[in-house]
Amino acid sequence: MIRSRRGGHRRHNADTAELNITAFMNLMVILVPFLLITAVFSRLAILELNLPGSSTEPVDPLEQTFQLEITVRKEQIEVGDRNVGALGVYPNSDDGYDFEALSTKLSDIKKRYPEKTDAAILLEAEIPYDTLVQVMDRVRVAQKIEEANIIRSDLFPDISIGDAPVLDGA
Questions:
Q1: Domains, the chain
Q2: What are the tens digits of pLDDT across the range 79-91?
């Protein structure tokens, strides 16, 4: 007698393929501690910046107050009051911008206006980002060295950034 095989009598292969995850586990053993260690040392510093107020707004002459503006140009840094005008101009030397003179001037201004905390930094086009950061550092904090110690004091921590006005004839 000949038996016919039907679909129900098929022989199933009892051996299943084994998944080898040894290499993946080795990678995880190395990668996870590395990421945890490096995450501890990464630090995120955020500065809150504001847009400077419009200079076209009408201002009552009796309510005019000191508004510090630091204008960074390709050839100089200007420190001034928006309502009065320039308080100091510091041309570039052979080494670049005169950040020390800027720090000294800002410290003097802070002594005259101790309650003032805001300043506007105005930049000409194509000023390098590194220059902006250095100016911001000088505007925010003053550093003095006394008896082998560095003493830091806040100057104008509330910084606004904008475009410098174009010079006439430029």
A1: 66-163 (3.30.420)
A2: 998 888 888 999 9
